[in-house]
Design goal:
Layout lengths: L4 H5 L1 H13 L8 H14 L3 E6 L3 E7 L11 E7 L26 H18 L5 E7 L7 H7 L2 H5 L1 E11 L6 E2 L3 E4 L1 E10 L3 E2 L9 H18 L7 E10 L5 E2 L2 E10 L2 H22 L2 E7 L5 E3 L1 H14 L5 E2 L11 H7 L2 E9 L16 H17 L1
Parallel strand pairs: 3-4, 3-5, 5-16, 6-15
Antiparallel strand pairs: 1-2, 2-4, 6-16, 7-14, 8-12, 8-13, 9-11, 10-12
Length: about 400
């Protein structure tokens, strides 16, 4: 199962699709132009069924293969790509640079979509599999929970999807390599917002005030001890305070302050611990200063957990495209989050990283998807679909 020659022949076409998507980025669920582009390509390829509006703006294309011994093609495998961009201003002056101010494909979802479209074109042309392939194009991965929206919309049941697979490019991982692991692959991601209310006043008379700045400073320091003093050394937990907002001028002690951040974990126990300790510290520190406090703790994407059997299959297919030496089957889990986790909670499957080569990091204004990896990604998708339906 090496690189499929057709993808070398189609490389310019698939790259052109990617460049069109890159130049016209859309955010979250507002991916109407992208979804229309995807549906038009799937129609041109001759997909047997194309359904739009799944999970608000998601697109699913169904490609039927050969009939099985029972005269049916009931087995269905799902392949998923994400479509949305990020609210980032692009830095690089590329020929396909974003034409939308303040928006860019800084995570490679344009490449993910283009590669899955390339695979759909090949699968619709050859149909060398027994069963059906569902190509899934998802909105709102970047914080909107589009994966959950598509699952909640009944996608798995509607199309009879038995297994589901995802793929993401990875800067720093060599071109022509893959990385995967069984079990937790990416972290859960929660967010917290803490609003502090003190008593404002003249900065020359702090004794008559309740200074929310002092509460904020103490609380930030205390939150950083949760990892070092409450979590076991071998448990993975990251807590980052990423926002602090208070005050407008130099001679006024403000009335209020706000701080916020993110919590990343791989286990339910650590997730519960972090929430509990943040709330306890906020309550007691604010009370010590006489301030009042409100903690809003929101559970975000769950842990992305790869299923063992499907992870082995994904690794085997990747090794067939490149070589066994080019596949890391024990990849270190990442603290980044991915809403493909919702699909893996609904059906068995696996999420794999494909090497992007040396480039700017994900979510960076200098990032651009590497078109060189397109044949590897497309070949992986096709061979995975065929292998999954024969397993």
């Amino acid at each position: 199962m090496p690189i499929i020659n057709r993808f070398t022949e189609w490389h310019d076409d698939i790259s052109a699709w990617r460049h069109t998507l890159h130049a016209n980025p859309e955010l979250l669920y507002d991916v109407h132009q992208t979804a229309t582009f995807v549906a038009a390509r799937l129609t041109a390829f001759g997909c047997d069924e194309i359904v739009t509006g799944i999970g608000q703006t998601g697109v699913v294309g169904i490609i039927h293969g050969k009939l099985g011994p029972d005269g049916e093609n009931a087995r269905v495998v799902g392949l998923r790509a994400d479509m949305d961009a990020l609210p980032i201003q692009e830095n690089r002056d590329l020929p396909h640079k974003s034409i939308v101010d303040g928006k860019m494909h800084a995570c490679g979802h344009d490449g993910h979509t283009a590669m899955l479209l390339g695979a759909a074109r090949y699968l619709a042309e050859t149909r060398q599999f027994i069963g059906s392939v569902a190509v899934i194009f998802q909105p709102a991965e970047e914080g909107g929970g589009g994966g959950k929206a598509m699952v909640d919309d009944g996608m798995m049941e509607r199309f009879g999807i038995e297994k589901v697979f995802g793929m993401h490019n990875m800067p720093g991982l060599d071109v022509g390599t893959f990385a995967v692991t069984s079990g937790p692959m990416m972290a859960a991601a929660d967010v917290f917002t803490i609003n502090i209310r003190g008593k404002g006043g003249h900065a020359a008379k702090p004794h008559g005030c309740i200074d929310p700045a002092m509460v904020t400073v103490q609380l930030v320091q205390a939150i950083q001890t949760i990892v070092s003093r409450n979590a076991a050394p071998l448990d993975s937990l990251v807590i980052s305070v990423t926002q602090i907002h208070l005050g407008d001028t130099d001679n006024v002690i403000p009335q209020t302050a706000m701080l916020g951040g993110t919590v990343r974990t791989f286990s339910a126990e650590m997730r519960t611990l972090a929430e509990k300790r943040i709330k306890e510290l906020a309550e007691h520190i604010s009370a010590a200063f006489g301030a009042t406090i409100d903690v809003d703790y929101q559970l975000g994407y769950p842990v992305t957990v790869n299923h063992e059997t499907e992870t082995v299959l994904a690794g085997d297919v990747a090794a067939g495209v490149v070589s066994e030496a080019q596949v890391n089957r024990s990849a270190t889990p990442m603290m980044g989050a991915e809403d493909f986790s919702y699909m893996l909670e609904s059906r068995p499957g696996a999420f794999i990283f494909i090497g992007q080569g040396e480039s700017a990091g994900l979510h960076h204004p200098d990032y651009d998807f590497n078109d060189e990896i397109i044949p590897y990604g497309c070949s992986y998708w096709v061979n995975l679909a065929e292998a999954a339906l024969s397993a």
